[in-house]
Amino acid sequence: MALQPHIKTRAFDPAEFLTDEETISAYLAESLASGDYAEFIEALSDVARAREMNLLAQESGIARESLYKTLNGTSKPRFEPIFKILTALNIKLTTHPAHA
Questions:
Q1: Cα separation of 38 and 31, whole Å?
Q2: What is residue 96's three-state secondary structure?
């Protein structure tokens, strides 16, 4: 019986693939379309990690500690910090009628 080669795996991290504004926008739009608030916050956290938390904190005007609290998934942040984060990420939030 031949031995199988040792295969190394690692956890999937979406932040590694969020490298440009178009990909980030599509990722956030898809998570928002799910209708799951927690999924959107998690996606926003992935984007924040991809863009470096310290830089995002500076650009959004939100203290780094508050940014982590906002995106940690255990609280329900107000819209204002979410809007500041999206603005700092150069993401425009738009609306359109939902189709049944």
A1: 9
A2: coil
Query: From the CB of residue 14, how many other CB atoms can be counted at a distance below 10 Å?
Result: 16
Sequence-separated (6 or more) residues with CB below 8 Å from residue 40: 28, 31, 32, 34
Pick out the chain residues at pLDDT < 70: 1-3, 100
| 62-68 long-range contacts, CB within 8 A, separation 24+ | none
Burial code of 55-93, b = ≥16 C-beta within 10 A, e = fewer? ebbebbebeeeebeebbeeeeebeeebbebbbebbebee
Regarding pTM above 0.85, the answer is: no
Q: What is the pLDDT of residues 10-28, one digit of tens each?
A: 899 999 999 998 999 999 9
